[in-house]
Records
---
Amino acid sequence: MCGIVGAAARRDIVPMMIEGLRRLEYRGYDSCGVATVGEGKLSRVRSVARVADLAAQVSKQKLAAETGIAHTRWATHGAPVTKNAHQMVSRDEIAVVHNGIIENFRELRDKLGQKGTKFGSETDTEVVAHLVSDELSQGKAPAAAVDSALKQLRGAFALAFLFSGEDDLLIGARRGSPLAIGYGKGEMYLGSD
Ligand code: GLU
């Protein structure tokens, strides 16, 4: 199990998230990524190299935002290649990072596949993004959509979500895996370490 860092603040949190990933490197990982939401849009940068490489890509792209999630991955489902690196997205409206294993992912993937969902990765994590998207399309608000999706999952996990059009929203969830919440002055954090 690797690491999650999340933050929602009133300043650019990308440098803090990169520093958070650096501090999680000791746990081992095979890929890493950062996603942000700003001006209503999700952005993400992923790397199958080290956090230093991710940091270089982030600064080249001038990624800056007040809300974001970052991840180091230790692959359990799907090879350590870019398409499997977190964040997983669904319809450019949800970004999710995940530590742990979704035990019933095969059955959920088949069910979503029958509804026409196309998958861009081999991970167990991607089903979570699509499940939440499916709940949103039924008219639920993001927190209610996550809540309904969580009820369908088996396994141990820590998850963090961003939503397009929701620049101030960071949702975290855990079952059996660690995920701590940090309350700051006008700033909120998530961390799995
Ligand atoms: N099971 C997920 C994957 O293979 C998450 C692995 C992790 O905890 O980093 O992508």
---
Amino acid sequence: MSLLVLKFGGTSVGDVERIKNAAAKVEAEVRKGHKVAVVVSAMAGVTDQLIGYCRAISPHHDPREHDAVASTGEQVTAGLMAMALQQRGLNARSWQGWQVPLRTDSSYSKARIVDINVVAFRKRIEDGEVGVMAGFQGIANDGSITTLGRGGSDTSAVALAIALKADRCDIYTDVDGVYTTDPRIDNKASKIPHISYEEMLEMASRGAKVLQTRSVEMAMRYHMPIQVLSTFANAVGSELPGTLVTDGDTTMEENLVTGIAYTRDQARVTLAKVADQPGVAAAIFGPLARAGINVDMIVQTASDDGKTTDITFTISKNDIDRTKQTLEGERARIKYDHVTASGGVVKISLIGGGMRSHTGVAATMFETLAEKKINIQAIETSEIVLGVLIAEEYTELALRALHTAYGLDAK
Ligand code: ADP
Ligand code: ASP
Ligand code: MG
């Protein structure tokens, strides 16, 4: 007998029939003798709609009230799921984040979990009840409701699993596992049976939104096994049909590259004719960091005249205006000629533990892109990642070509 946390994402609880289907999975696990806690997302599309309402009131609405609104989607599904379970003859009860309580800091819309007190929750589970926790939401010290960022129910589920000392956290979604790349972009993507936390963390943070990055970070820190699996297939989690995310090496160790991720929401900023002298990078990136702007890739062009140089870097597309403002404010110190900022770029990242011990990974990437006449605008490398920035229009072409080049296509 195990203690399992089962999380159902938006599509998995997209309508009443789907909630009933998810309840059947929960029942199957209970009948096998497992103790079960459930975490639910809002029904598909609901969170977008709620956020849309907030924006329609005002683009500059109060962040506290934003979370009061955005968190409600999960309240609905938690109640409906508890009812659906009761309908199957199970003992079940819904828990809002504040009822557990799942405590967070006060950074509205990206709150971080501080702690979860599961004493009461656990007691009821041990007595045979199924606890259904609303994902995505928590409560701050001052009693305000908070939310954990988009996709945050994954993090709620992993955090609950850790607090309950569960045996595993099963993330039920609309795909039957983690794939070598987003199966919606490349139909040759193949399912990865087993992936390490480290690789999954890179996949998630570089765009594979199948798991929220923070959920993987947390699972890695506490060694909580995660399984990603389909809500719409027959098997249930305890039959291990999905992708396991755990410590250690992947079963695809022989492959150089385990997966390919992409992030579309990038923008490229170029500062033209910046003085080529010590302290310039600090003058640029210090103020951006203080403004909370995340800078990703940085490229400095070799100086022609020894006096000035161009510096290019990437940021999230949403930060274009704030970046321009910040740089404008620092103009007297940085002394650049002009700044250009544009979207229309995508970052494609190859991820693989195998890169550590092999050479030639980069060469294959550059040759493959060159063959397709795709220009590389910036390059980033780290131990298990190789990332390039290219024009967004080539996303699919590049992804599919690289997927084939690294031998990842489904057999
Ligand atoms: P949920 O609503 O269940 O949380 P998400 O939409 O957040 O589901 O995540 C599942 C989606 O993640 C899939 O439908 C798929 O398109 C996308 N995805 C992106 N990259 C990958 C990948 N490498 N493997 C599997 N799914 C991926
Ligand atoms: N409902 C929230 C969202 O759409 C949280 C989640 O689904 O994980 O982002
Ligand atoms: Mg999700």
